[in-house]
């Protein structure tokens, strides 16, 4: 690793003890840092992560934030889900303590080549495909972000000639300082996270930070078919390479093929990866079939655009399970296609009233308190030949720790239902 001496004996507080906070705390402990962790949640997950910390000398507070964990610190590292109005962020600003994101910390230590992928949709799929492409080309590659391990959990293993395929959110980019990928990728730009940003311009400014430190030795890959992204070529010092929709390739694949060309990877190798790719967990993932009704897990879909993609990808009539924590998304974007392809809608979570106002009068709408209840209601409403689709259009944080837990709960509920249906009556 690079720059390890900087962190020795520093006083650093990590805000958030989910996956990235846990990885970050253990990494800093290994570097000789005086580490503290604060998380306002006291749950089974945070308590479980306390056990996974490498040392009992790491100070921890759960279920609250106190100024004692912020003042007199050299640095604050915040996890992706921490909002800008969280008390530790406000206090750190008051005390004039620098705040960085987990990816900034890991990138500062990383000696390898970083390929960073952002966008409103498709980040996980593209990050995964880049990893498979590099692996097939004989490179040592680490796939990090919302998939696999956090960047800070892998950085100790990364060497100079290795590559990192890194999924990067706008939240993480808000708190970078020197983050400088060799290749930056912005896949697309549509309405998302309007619960965090004042408007689309502020959201775009966060996304643009992915290339602010790049220079002429680096590359910025942009979607040519989106004018707002095409125009970003004027704002970067990096070499701009465009991708666009190609025959027989979807936009995600076109982006990966373009990145492959920058890395001098044989196009035939990349196309073969596309043919063999079976998708990623929680993104249009086939779960099972019960009495000729398919169940599909699309928990990764946290925007209306993602759900539109899912609806286009399914040929059968659909019973849609949607809802969660509202992100300020315009759900009306899904309505026209839903009216053509969806038979019934089951709503869950905090956003169900807002979603109901969109669908009511156009489609039959029902509500469920839990995801397990939604699965059972959807099964009752579905007919032979239908698909039951979990595609929430919302974040998961009202009911679950992340989209992965939501997807796992959905699959467990489906499997439980399948076992019941297989019993003799």
Number of domains: 3
Q: What is the gyration radius calculated from CA atoms?
A: 22 Å
Helix coverage percent = 25-40%
Distance between the termini: 61 Å
Query: Helix segment count?
Result: 16
Give the tally of β-strands: 17
Q: Roughly what fraction of the amino acids lie in strands?
A: 15-25%
What is the makeup of the main sheet?
6 strands, parallel
Named at the architecture level, the CATH assignment of the largest domain is 3-Layer(aba) Sandwich
Descriptive account of the structure:
The longest helix is centred in the last third of the chain and has 20 residues, at 403-422. This protein is α/β, with parallel strands linked by helices and 425 residues long. Helix content is 35%, strand content 19%. The strands form 3 sheets. It has a 6-stranded parallel sheet with strand order 7-8-6-9-10-11. Strands 12-13-17-14-15-16 form a 6-stranded mixed sheet, sandwiched between helices. It has a 5-stranded parallel sheet with strand order 3-2-1-4-5, sandwiched between helices. It is globular and about 65 Å long. Helix 1 (19-30) links the parallel strand 1 and strand 2. It is built from 16 helices and 17 strands. It has helices spanning 19-30, 44-52, 87-94, 102-109, 123-136, 151-154, 170-173, 200-208, 227-230, 251-262, 267-276, 304-313, 335-341, 352-359, 371-381, 403-422, and strands at residues 11-15, 34-39, 59-62, 75-78, 99-101, 113-118, 141-144, 163-167, 183-186, 219-223, 239-243, 285-290, 293-297, 318-323, 342-348, 365-367, 387-390. It has 3 domains: 10-97, Rossmann fold; 104-276, 3-Layer(aba) Sandwich (UDP-N-acetylmuramoyl-L-alanine:D-glutamate ligase), CATH 3.40.1190; 285-422, Alpha-Beta Complex (Protein-Tyrosine Phosphatase, Chain A).
